[in-house]
């Protein structure tokens, strides 16, 4: 029986990865932070005698060193991060501490304890950023971070590579493109749209206000991606891999697809901050643009090339863009709509 530590266990990916590893017979130890209100909604349903929670924080090296020493895990998945790109402009220093230096603290805990463990770092397509935009983006595409979040993840990426090269630690980066699900935080754009469309359909909300409708993302389903994380650590040698669908869609297309799930066709009028989306039948205003959601610097285009992962890991995404929208809409119609 293998043992794993997951940081970020209460997040979208942490919850799916916990279910996945438990299904493979792992003993799973999750790191959770203390909150004044509960933060365990995504894992509350998991009743398994091989699932344990430990209070801690990736900014606290003492707790990390103690945890790694006590559990002596076979695998560590570092998913903990201040993961919101837009909010990282508001809390840049904390984002650097948690998302960047937190990774160093875990690697040091492994090194100092001399533990033979495999380490997975949750790297991101935000590393590619842009300027100039080249697509599709693969493991060999140069990085150009465009936010405090991406700059922190850049440090985390390279310190993972460095501990592999310097100390022979089995440390790997999964460079994952956007992946979504009904468990996605409601302040990320896909989930913001699916919850709003469900509430509009139920007459509980008038319209949705968004930022950059032109941004393009390579959106996949989170469950497919946690399997890829695990596959990355099952290889004979440590390496870095891109996981992506190879398809890109604008935020506007996601809006259209979500409304189509409730039988509404959106027609667009105007441009830039004046662009608006209307119900093609009733003429009702359903979507507008609010500049408060614009970012000081934007990543315009993400489109991944996961051929290395397909070839070496045998990894494939299973859920298409339209299926993803359907899954999210069905869940939010249950939650908020009908
Ligand atoms: P998420 O839902 O925002 O979850 C983030 C997790 O990190 C939460 O469990 C959060 O705990 C925890 N966390 C935050 N700060 C922490 C700290 N200082 N100490 C300990 N835990 C802390 O993110 P996700 O979508 O599951 O993503 C998982 C990881 O993959 C993140 O590192 C993210 O940056 C990266 N990533 C995500 C995507 C994507 O599209 N989802 C793509 C590429 C990379 P609380 O519940 O206590 O807040
Ligand atoms: O959903 P988002 O906030 O995700 P973003 O910035 O792509 O970051 C996510 O994916 C990364 C992988 O590429 C992860 F590393 C990261 O942790 C996170 O999971 O925004 C997607 C796009 C952006 O271009 C944003 O400007 O949607 C645009 N957008 C337009 N209106 C909006 C909104 N984003 C948000 N959150 N809210 C809006 O109202």
Strand content: 15-25%
- Give the total of beta strands: 15
Give the CA-CA distance, first to last residue: 44 Å
**Helical content class:** 25-40%
Strand order of the largest sheet: 3-2-1-4-5-6-11
Give the biggest sheet.
7 strands, parallel
Uncertain stretches: none
Radius of gyration: 20 Å
Structural class determined from secondary elements: alpha/beta
Which H/E pattern describes the elements? EHEEHEHHEHEEHEEEHEEHEEEHH
Number of helices: 10
The hetero molecules present are:
NADP nicotinamide-adenine-dinucleotide phosphate, ligand G4F
Shape call: globular
Mean pLDDT: 97
Describe this structure in words.
With 338 residues, the chain is of the alpha/beta class. It contains 10 helices and 15 strands. Helix 4 (92-113) packs parallel to helix 5 (148-167), helix 6 packs parallel to helix 8 (251-260) and helix 6 packs across helix 10. The chain is globular and about 65 Å long. The relative contact order is 0.13. The protein binds NADP nicotinamide-adenine-dinucleotide phosphate (NAP) and ligand G4F. Ligand G4F binds at residues 83, 85-86, 124-126, 177-178, 187-189, 192, 210-212, 215, 217, 251, 293, 295, 298, 302.
Short description:
The protein is α/β, with parallel strands linked by helices and 338 residues long. The protein starts with a strand and ends with a helix.
Write the layout of secondary structure elements.
Blueprint: E1 3-7, H1 12-23, E2 27-32, E3 51-55, H2 61-71, E4 75-78, H3 85-88, H4 92-113, E5 118-124, H5 148-167, E6 170-176, E7 179-180, H6 189-201, E8 208-210, E9 216-217, E10 220-221, H7 222-233, E11 241-243, E12 249-250, H8 251-260, E13 266-269, E14 276-279, E15 285-289, H9 307-313, H10 321-336
Parallel strand pairs: 1-2, 1-4, 2-3, 4-5, 5-6, 6-11, 7-10, 8-15
Antiparallel strand pairs: 9-12, 13-14, 14-15
This protein binds NADP nicotinamide-adenine-dinucleotide phosphate (NAP) and ligand G4F.
NADP nicotinamide-adenine-dinucleotide phosphate binds next to helix 1 and strand 5.
